[in-house]
Amino acid sequence: MKLIFERSVPGRRCSILPECDVPVIGTGEKLLSAAGRKSPLRLPQVSENDISRHYTALANATHGVNDGSYPLGSCTMKYNPKLNDEMASLPGFTRIHPLQPEETVQGCLHVLHDAERVFCEITGMDAMTFQPAAGAHGEFTGLLLIRAYHESRGDVKRTKIIVPDSAHGTNPASATMAGYQVINIPSTKEGCVDLEALKAAVGEDTAGLMLTNPNTVGLFDKNILEITRIVHESGGLCYYDGANLNAVMGVARPGDMGFDTVHLNLHKTFSTPHGGGGPGSGPVGCKAFLGKFLPGKEIREENGVFYRADYEKSIGMVRAFYGNFLVVVKALCYALTLGAEGIRDAAHMAVLNANYLRVRLSEAYHMAYQETCMHEFVMTLQPEKEELQVSAMDIAKALLDYGIHPPTMYFPLIVHEALMVEPTETESPENLEELISAFMEIHRKAQEDPKWIRSAPHKTEISRLDEVQAARNPKLHYEL
């Protein structure tokens, strides 16, 4: 496929500007000589037809949830109703400015106020900010709340954050950015937190624990109440990574599990399409005793009028104004459309789909953990790697030939040759059967012709890349 610059022909264009309808004052030569470009602007010169075909070709070469199955583990790449995009496109939401007087943006303040109420109910929290722009940004914000709490009490000796070895990679990174030392604790052979290791890790220097539940291997930790109790008794606080909330929303609340603060991925769980860099939103909720430290402004209501107020001991701004506001609109629309029962049903269906897929695929593939999973499960291709020299990467590449986006590879790190699969609740039984059929056929081909699998994909526009060369000598821009 040609790049847009390769389609360029000197002198070709696609715009016809109307004649100037105001008096022309001067030629602008002085301005141009002072601030003008010293060389021509390097833009492709193409016709409207060229542009249309170029972006259509790009769209055809891209795989998204509208094209087919996208079982990317830990990412919850589910179909999002277009109604929510339409609501977020209403002029009353798009043609505003965050510095407008409060009386002119009452509808927008109403949305933020209602969204806080709805998502606090879902998470079991008392207050929430929508400033953070993404999940990792939410993690960082939650950790700043924990730090502000300890410092407000003069408890400055708490310098360590405990993170399980199965955590998302952003957890230790966020803790480090917040100024903490990260203490990793191992998982048990069942894939959950090792209680004895946790007890040995906590102490007077423990600021808190970061935990995802269900965890990264797709299991709900049956000891969750004991885990949060151990941390609290040491004087630490508990942070909930909401990346996997899709499995338990409407069923179990982080606040009831003993967590003090939580972030949500509105772009995973609550109806904003994501991937390719955004848009994201990682609102942070907290218990009442942490509410006074929240960033930004609190939205309050009095006699039907909404207004902004300062938090008592705010940590300051973590992003401009109210975060990605239109993402919040989509999320609120999603939650109100489904209602309490619908949100619960979505979680149940996500768990049902994942377990159906897990059981069916276990006829051929090895599961890293045999327990009933939640929204996702992890397979290990270690036996295939040892016996056939077929890796998890090879299986993932082969799925591309079937029009299926590969699952997450080589994560979590505690499982060798891992493939992490999350079908989500929006895949129908027919779609699951197609996915199962592809996985089974690939496994059969791996037994019969492992060389064919190792050279996959065969039907895509670009076949197997030289990944070592791409990593060491990447071409990051077009050479004009």
List keywords for this structure.
Aspartate Aminotransferase, domain 2, 4-stranded antiparallel beta sheet, pyridoxal phosphate binding, 480 residues, 7-stranded mixed beta sheet, single chain, Aspartate Aminotransferase, domain 1, alpha/beta, 12% strand
What is the fold's blueprint, element by element?
Elements: H1 29-35, H2 48-60, H3 82-88, H4 91-94, H5 106-123, E1 127-129, H6 135-152, E2 160-164, H7 170-177, E3 181-185, H8 195-201, E4 206-211, H9 224-233, E5 237-242, H10 254-257, E6 261-264, H11 266-269, E7 284-286, H12 288-291, E8 297-302, E9 305-310, H13 325-361, E10 366-367, E11 377-380, H14 382-388, H15 392-399, E12 408-409, E13 418-421, H16 429-448, H17 450-454, H18 467-472
Parallel strand pairs: 2-3, 2-4, 4-5, 5-6
Antiparallel strand pairs: 1-7, 6-7, 8-9, 10-11, 11-13, 12-13
Report on this model:
The protein is an alpha/beta fold. The chain has three domains: 1-61, no CATH class; 82-339, 3-Layer(aba) Sandwich (Aspartate Aminotransferase, domain 2), CATH 3.40.640; 346-470, Alpha-Beta Complex (Aspartate Aminotransferase, domain 1), CATH 3.90.1150. 39% of the residues lie in helices and 12% in strands. The chain has 18 helices and 13 strands. α3 (82-88) packs antiparallel against α13 (325-361). The radius of gyration is 26 Å and the shape is globular. Belongs to the GcvP family. C-terminal subunit subfamily. This is Probable glycine dehydrogenase (decarboxylating) subunit 2. Keywords: Oxidoreductase, Pyridoxal phosphate. Its cofactor is pyridoxal 5'-phosphate.
